[in-house]
Specification:
The chain is built from no helices and 8 strands. The chain has a single domain, classed as Histone H3 K4-specific methyltransferase SET7/9 N-terminal domain, CATH 2.20.110. The protein is flat and about 40 Å long. It is an all-beta fold.
């Protein structure tokens, strides 16, 4: 069996801060990934299966709070949950 190994992957901004980190098999992203702003706050996170976005993908605002959650299936957006600023309730927009 010629199975490629899962490897940790980190990509950096020009200033040396971490831009993205996750795992790859060859050049294909797999598993949980995170992206960061230059100041270190998390910008986005989600999961890849064989290079395709799957499950919940979360986008964070500049303070690091959840801004929206998007459900992905086979790389396509199924629907989005928007975080309301007034509290922890979610509004769901079906797209």
């Amino acid at each position: 069996m010629n199975k490629k190994a899962v490897k940790e992957f980190t990509q950096y901004h020009k200033d040396g801060s971490i831009w993205a980190k996750g795992q790859v098999i060859g050049n294909t992203p797999v598993g949980y990934w995170e992206w960061f702003r230059k100041d270190g706050t998390k910008m986005r996170s989600g999961t890849y299966r064989d290079g395709i976005q799957v499950g919940e993908w979360t986008t964070y605002d500049k303070s690091g709070a959840i801004y929206k959650v998007t459900d992905m299936k086979d790389g396509k957006r199924m629907h989005r949950k928007l975080q309301l600023k007034s509290g922890n309730d979610h509004a769901t927009a079906i797209t």
